[in-house]
Amino acid sequence: MQTQSRLIMNPNGGVAGYEPAAADEQHEAVLRELTHGHQLTAHLQAEALRALRGQGQAEATATFILQEVSRAFSVCINIMGGSSPAATPTTPPPDAAAVVASGAASGRRARDDGVPRKVTVTSSPYSDGYQWRKYGQKRIMRTSFPRCYYRCCYHRERSCPATKLVQQQPPQQRGDGEQTMYTVTYVDEHTCHNMAPPEPEAAARSSTPDPLGFSSGLQPRQQQWGGAGLDRGSKDELERQALVSSLACVLQGHHQSYPGSGAGTPDGSPSQARAGDCPSASGLSLDASDDVGLDVTDYGVTDALYFAVSSSYGPGGDGMIP
DNA sequence: CATATTTGACCACA
DNA sequence: TGTGGTCAAATATG
Predict the structure, then answer these.
(1) pLDDT band at residue A183 under the 50/70/90 scheme
(2) Any idea which nucleotide's C1' is nearest the CA of A115?
(3) Partner of A230 for a Cys bridge, out of A24, A61, A93, A235, CB 3.0 to 4.6 A?
(4) For residues A85 and A82, what is the distance between their CA atoms, to the nearest angstrom?
């Protein structure tokens, strides 16, 4: 936060005490480091997923955290004027997600022009850090599974135009193992991040959470996964241990079992609301942020990054969109 | 009871 | 005219 303020105060790179040329070099160096960090995070993410595959909650948690780190890098790169892979605050390709195309959705009907679209393939279409509300589902011709339509929870409250389409891929298209893959099309970009925190009135009136769910406020119709039969405290403690252990192991280049992994997280996969259909909307990201939100803030990593960048979305960090 | 999801109908576009 | 996208009433859930 403090660091961010300093950056904002010197938007042209003119750091006090440095002449412009040196400032430019510094600017470039910072961009280089940020980009490098972004790439390393992607590698770490891949390694973590490999190491934690099948570890349920730990896998989801690690994924969530690393996505947030990656997202933070993206935002910082954007702020510094670099070209980030994602213009949106979120780094859309979650875990092993791959950006398939940009600028047009799959299929022949590119609905409307001028609306930015980003198509990704991912195994966790809901862990992108945003809260989505499902508003429709439709069977699409020549597809095995229905397409689900989601829009940002702040669609009304903040007029956020972001929507996304989730299409489960048929088994034969699945890449590795048994993992179910989804084609996720992000349509339009989030504007909810550019705005001030929801006014108390709105926050009290509606249950819509903070974008990343760090407030740990319980959500209506919140999906439940893992932690069956455990009270909140025990579950949190187990997840905390799992998270610490998992990330430590990943960072060390190997993985070992962590205490309580069996008892606390029988199955970390997001529950499929309806077999064969699209999973329920406000799922993984929400739960991950909710269940481990305190843990994350305790670690101070994602939290710090989040608050460092979240206060400055938009131009100059002060560009509040009405 | 409030809110989210489901689902059929409607609308717009190619 | 067929298909994809959205709306809104009905339903489900906590």
Answers:
(1) confident
(2) C5
(3) A235
(4) 10
